[in-house]
Amino acid sequence: MNEKIQDIINESLTVKSLVLNDLRLVGLVGDLVTLIMTGSGRGNTFIFAAMEEVRRMLSIWRPEFSGRFYINRDALPSEALHCNTSYLTAVANDFSYDLIYSRLIKGIGKPGDILIGLSTSGNSVNIVKAFETAREKGSPPSG
């Protein structure tokens, strides 16, 4: 059992080391932080959308926007689209999984809202369509 625990911890450290040493990825994270900080001053909503593999990670991030995360500040408006399972299954049944996020963004998104979408492949059709719809609504490019 101890060996399995050590393997899991080592895998986590390896991933963190790879991220730390990838200057392009570190720069993208910095760009995202800048986008979040500038968007928060304008009252824009942060919209989260994720595929199954990374939903839990975004579900952890989202509460930090209305919580405290390092500093005391006003709560930031945010919405995690992937948490609304009743909506997701209804739209998937009526239309397709490809449209589960884009239809909701079309309905609730406002110009300037910031979509944070994650997919392990980077090519999940429903995430790509969500970004297309967000751009049509006037959201700044993000990823």
What portion of the residues fall into strands of 2 or more residues?
5-15%
How many beta-strand runs?
3
Rg for CA atoms: 17 Å
Regions with pLDDT < 50 over 5+ consecutive residues? none
What's the overall average pLDDT, rounded? 83
Shape: globular
In whole angstroms, the N-to-C terminal distance is 38 Å
Strand order across the largest sheet: 2-1-3
Task: Profile the largest sheet.
Answer: 3 strands, parallel
Give the H and E element order. HHEHEHHEH
How much helicity do the residues have?
A: 55-70%
Number of helices: 6
Protein structure class: mainly alpha
Detail the topology: elements first, then pairings.
Layout: H1 2-21, H2 23-40, E1 46-50, H3 55-66, E2 78-80, H4 85-94, H5 100-108, E3 114-118, H6 125-136
Parallel strand pairs: 1-2, 1-3
Helix pairs in contact: 5-6
Condensed summary:
This protein has 143 residues and is mostly helical. It has helices at residues 2-21, 23-40, 55-66, 85-94, 100-108, 125-136, and strands at 46-50, 78-80, 114-118.
Report on the structure:
There is one protein chain. This protein has 143 residues and is mainly alpha-helical. The chain is 57% helix and 9% strand. It contains six helices and three strands; from the N terminus they run ααβαβααβα. The protein has helices at 2-21, 23-40, 55-66, 85-94, 100-108, 125-136, and strands at residues 46-50, 78-80, 114-118. Strands 2-1-3 form a three-stranded parallel beta sheet, sandwiched between helices. The longest helix has 20 residues, at 2-21. The radius of gyration is 17 Å and the shape is globular. The termini are far apart. The mean pLDDT is 83.
